Every structure is written in structure tokens, then in C-alpha cells.
Amino acid sequence: MRKTVRVTNAIIALDDDGDGVPLLLLHGFPATGMLWSSVAPSLVNAGYRVLVPDLVGYGGSDAAAGERLDMEHQARWLLEMLDALGVARAVVAAHDVGSAAAQLLLSMAPQRVRGLVVLDGVYAGEWAMEAITSIQTWDTAQAGRLHPVLARRLGKSAALREMLAAYAGEQGGLRLIRAARDLDPRQTLHLGEALRAIGAPALVLWGEHDEFLPVDSVARPLAELLGAELIMLPGAHFTPLDCPQQVAAALIDFLARLSQNDSSAANGD
User: Fold this and answer.
1) I want to staple 54 with a disulfide (CB 3.0 to 4.6 A). Which of 61, 95, 179, 222 is the partner?
2) What residues does 203 pair with on adjacent strands?
3) What is the DSSP letter of 37?
């Protein structure tokens, strides 16, 4: 079910489907919640409540003029969204820089995160910012020309091209430029110690052919930091679009193990 939630100086559009344990799915840049369109139905069918928002300033979500769209603000807005939806605790799965919002959310409110899954995400200050420099420096007077260039550069699949259509036209280009300029890798640069101390159950999923975030310098140290298993998937950077069945299967397996661990803890095993 598509719905909107009002948070401080912003409105979040999201899909909220299914019942059971809440699972929050976050996209990154330059995506929307459509990133999860081929994954979410499998999770709903497996018996989970699946929440798929557009981050503020992306897709159907928007913020008041002057509001920053950085990932720290996103994390705070997401917590407000969970409050409004009556969700006390959720498993969070996040892709790309959306994983920065997830890590910040975990550090701010560890009691709200039952488990964390990172897909082709960020580690410390490694956000692959060099890949978006051209968008950050794009002439706003030529914002309408951004989408065709981006679609040619990234649109390797029909699903990816469909997702990027959210940023077509002048207004779409301006929104993407604004979002790109507000990304700030310093927000997770020194987060490692806090995340290690929290020790939330975690899993790291990575595309074998990720062209933006290398396995050795990002995925492996991130998995070590989180004490998580690293699973390689047969895709590139946009794994939820590239290999949705494998992503859904890995998430369902992780969720099942979380439930088993919770049951064992409740029984004193």
C-alpha cells in the first residue's frame, strides 16, 4: 500500500505491505524505493511487513526548501517515520549510501534495529564520491540534460532505466543535483567503534562485479567491522535489480536465523 508520512519539515512516500516482523528497505543514490520492486514481493510472501520508502528528496519524498538531505537527516527522518507507523523495531536492509543512513540510525537508536543488512554499501569514508562529482558540479541551468546522460551511463537494464526516470526533466535534475551536493562521507568516517560496540546481527551482500565500491577495500573491512558474513552475489552494483531472487533468498535466510536466535535467547539456550 502506497502511503505518505509527515516528518519534521518533510514528507516521506513509502510502500507498506504485508504483516509480521517489520523489514525496512533503503535505497541509495541515485535511486528510489523502486530499487526493491523485484525483491519486496518475495519478502511479503514470506510473511514479513515490508517498508520501502523513498529517502527524503528522492522519488516521491520531499523536504522543505533549505533542509539538508544528508544521511544523518535521513536517519532521523526514518526514525520519525517508524514512530508514525507504530514500528518499535525493524530489520534494516540498505543499499549504497542508504547504508550510511542505516548505520547512523543504528548508532542513534540501537534498540530500534533488530538486524542490519548492507548491500554494496559504504564503509567509513568510502562512499565512491568520485562517481558523482560530475553531478555535484553540474550546471543547474542545464539540469534538464542530466537525466539522459545518467541514463546512458547507468541504464544497463530496463529496470534501472525505469527507476532513473524519476529524475527526468528540469525538476528531476535539480532534485538529483541537490541530493548529490548534500552527501557527506564525514558522517560515517568515525562511526566504526560505535557500530562494533553495538554488535547488532549483520549481513553484508555484494555484487561480484560492483564497479563503484570494491570488495577488498570496502566490503571486506565492513563485514569485519560488523562481525558479519560476506556473501558475493552474481551482479554489479545495483544488486536488488541485478539479482533480486538471490537478494531475497539471502534476506529471508538472515531473517530466519534472527528468529531462531531470538527463540533460543527467550528459551535460555
Assistant:
1) 61
2) 117, 229
3) T
